[in-house]
Write a structure and sequence with these properties.
The chain is built from 17 helices and 23 strands. It is an alpha+beta fold. The protein folds into three domains: 100 residues, Rossmann fold (3-Layer(aba) Sandwich), CATH 3.40.50; 74 residues, ATP-grasp fold, A domain (Dna Ligase, domain 1), CATH 3.30.1490; 242 residues, ATP-grasp fold, B domain (D-amino Acid Aminotransferase, Chain A, domain 1). The strands form five sheets. The chain has an eight-stranded antiparallel beta sheet, with helices on both faces. Strands 3-2-1-4-5 form a five-stranded parallel beta sheet, sandwiched between helices. A four-stranded antiparallel beta sheet has the order 6-9-7-8, with helices on both faces. The C terminus is likely disordered.
Length: 516
């Protein structure tokens, strides 16, 4: 369905450039077409035959050999928009999506930015300024020390003083960025200096800013986030919560909606706090406010992600609201068209992130050609992916292959549906985390809805990663390949990224446990 532009104004944009790659680029490009918009992809040389390029109406090569020269080159992306006549840019997530300077440059070029203002991105992107704003706005924050502590011996005294005020255990966090980078937990004072220096180094390398701060580390807490939507007419609503507690080293693994730990009263209170947070910065667009939910029912602001989230599909599945379409509409100046009272909560949805990685070897990335790619299908099953059969998985980009999302009437049914879908997901050519996902789903703690953010990091990996393929498994994989008409040579030559010693990796890798 095309966007219904306001009758008293011309369409503000008609061609959208998607400044991203992979599954999120495909997702946004498909949404643009459904909105009646022309769409442009950008790509690096290694992505020349990728799915997102094929999905777009036209595509522009970004010259260069590195991310900084291609997907992180704001100037080249803006020039690509100009050269193709694209009058809007959607950043997806990651890359330049939360760079306030890029948002400003897009708007200065006379191109519509499909996202929040540069001011909102900058304010919420700095955890120290965001924390201060939340305190001013009455949004609960985790007890901590707001004084920024920068890398260097002269600041160690201030760090020790701040740590004494917060108390142990504590968490050292980078002020900029996210994704678990620049984060270190400290349980005793003797580890404070080394962990501080490690966090500052990592933050500086990842975000160009080594500033860190500290806050109390809440044990046995859950990671619960609220999806918000805001328009330029003062409208602001939340779309309920997502539970992202199943995470490894601060990286989310499985997400679900609704949270098994959130009561209707907590949902209302958390939703109100999220909308307050968004309003405090004049937010316009789709965003996510993340909270920690303590075991006693208290919740505290973590951060706000000023972009679409990887896990947005579980909200779409349970509310029936297309978040990317809403991003287009709000960027076009349209009102939300939905009130808080009209937001529904229908059934239960779970998303699993399928990666080309080897859990039995410390989650090292696995590379190779996707000689067979057979994602599951059926009622209540959605697969968001940016790869196809025959594509190559390299170490150049994030190894996520797909997001597998299911929807069912209740949580127990959703877990069973996800497990069945994972079991029928077949890939030959790379190792994946499918066994790890299935074992996590079947664990009593997850089944009972009692996990917390420490669950995966405190569980023996051997319990969840699954065994190494034995001779009988490899014979079964080879037989499956033969039934699928795959020649052995098509999958030969692949290897795990950790096996660069000259020893050939096993060419018959399977994503699931069963074969068609």
């Amino acid at each position: 369905m095309s966007l219904e532009w306001m009758s008293d104004a011309p369409s503000p944009f008609s061609k959208v450039l998607v400044a991203n790659r992979g599954e999120i680029a495909v997702r946004v490009l498909q949404a643009a077409k459904e909105a009646g918009l022309s769409c442009v992809a950008v790509f690096s040389e290694s992505d020349s035959s990728s799915l997102h390029v094929e999905t777009a109406d036209e595509a522009v090569l970004l010259e260069g050999d590195t991310l900084e020269m291609t997907y992180l080159n704001g100037g080249s992306i803006i020039e690509a928009a100009r050269s193709t006549g694209a009058d809007a840019i959607h950043p997806g997530y990651g890359f330049l999506s939360e760079r306030s300077d890029f948002a400003s440059a897009v708007e200065a070029a006379g191109i519509r930015w499909i996202g929040p203002s540069a001011h909102a991105i900058e304010t919420m992107g700095d955890k120290i300024s965001a924390r201060s704003l939340m305190i001013e706005s009455g949004v609960p924050v985790i007890p901590g020390e707001q004084v920024p502590v920068e890398e260097g011996a002269d600041h160690l005294g201030a760090l020790a003083s701040a740590a004494a005020k917060v108390g142990y255990p504590l968490l050292i966090k980078a002020s900029a960025g996210g994704g678990g980078k620049g984060m270190r937990s400290v349980s005793v004072p003797k580890n404070l200096r080394s962990e501080f220096e490690a966090a500052a180094r990592e933050a500086s390398a990842a975000f160009g800013d080594g500033t860190v701060y500290i806050e109390r580390l809440l044990k046995r807490a859950r990671h619960v986030e609220i999806q918000v939507l805001c328009d330029s007419h003062g409208g602001a609503i939340h779309l309920n919560e997502r539970d992202c507690s199943l995470q490894r080293r601060y990286q989310k693994v499985i997400e679900e909606a609704p949270s098994p730990a959130v009561s209707p009263g907590t949902r209302d209170a958390m939703g109100h706090a999220a909308v307050t947070a968004a309003r405090s910065v004049g937010y316009v667009g789709a965003g996510t406010v993340e909270f920690l939910l303590a075991s006693n029912g208290e919740f505290f602001f973590l951060e706000m992600n000023t972009r679409i989230q990887v896990e947005h599909p579980v909200t779409e599945m349970t509310t029936g609201i297309d978040l990317v379409q809403k991003q287009f509409e709000v960027a076009a100046g349209l009102p939300l068209g939905i009130s808080q009272q009209e937001v529904s909560q229908n059934g239960h949805s779970i998303e699993a992130r399928v990666y080309a990685e080897d859990p039995s070897r410390g989650f090292l990335p696995s590379v190779g050609e996707l000689a067979v790619w057979r994602p599951p299908s059926g009622p209540g099953i959605r697969v968001d992916s940016g790869v196809r059969e025959g594509d190559s998985v390299t170490i150049e980009f994030d190894p996520m292959l797909a997001k597998l999302i299911v929807h069912a009437p209740d949580r127990r049914s959703a877990i069973r549906r996800l497990d069945n879908a994972l079991s029928s997901f077949v890939v030959l050519g790379v190792r994946t985390n499918i066994d790890f996902l299935r074992n996590s789903l079947s664990h009593d703690a997850f089944q009972g809805g009692s996990i917390d953010t420490d669950f995966l990091d405190s569980t023996d990996p051997s319990e969840l990663s699954g065994p190494e393929p034995d001779h009988h498994t490899l014979v079964a994989v080879a037989a499956a390949a033969q039934r699928l008409g795959i020649d052995r040579q098509q999958v030969a030559g692949t290897e795990s990224v950790d096996d660069h010693t000259g020893h050939q990796g096993d060419p018959f890798r399977t994503l699931g446990r069963t074969f068609p």
